Amino acid sequence: MSHMARLSVDPENRVVMHCHPTNTLAMNYVHELDERKLTHTLWEMCTECMIVFPDGVGVLPWMLCGTNSIGEATAEKMREFRLVIWGMHGIYGVGKTMDEAFGLIETVEKAAQVYMLTAHLPRINTIRDDQLKELAEYFGVNYRKDFLNL
Ligand SMILES: [Zn+2]
Description:
Largest sheet: 4 strands, mixed
Bound molecules: zinc ion
Helix content: 40-55%
CATH superfamily: Class II aldolase/adducin N-terminal domain
Number of domains: 1
CATH architecture: 3-Layer(aba) Sandwich
Strand order of the largest sheet: 1-4-3-2
Distance between the termini: 35 Å
């Protein structure tokens, strides 16, 4: 179902990868499972995030895996996102090649790691929304404008 959904959006998105990256999973327990808020937090964690996944990360709540309903819910998110988190389970990444799908997931995982290394500490600096916008515009990526607070 996810393959069908992605191919209808981009005929080159032949690879769908699923895994359980440690820090992404850890972040699921301490961050709201809201795709706008979660994407925004990830974007703030590393400069490259806005460029690598400007379209954001879709998020599903915890659901029973292996069922038709989680498959349908995932496919629905895949129409909008190349990355989909299964709450407290794992993540999906898609792409033209294995490298692209893996790279997407790895970028989220690194941002989640930075988040987990800093979430318990006072935040002194951040990448501001006007800077995220500047990044997206400079690199010419089509980003989720509704995910920024501008
Ligand atoms: Zn799994």
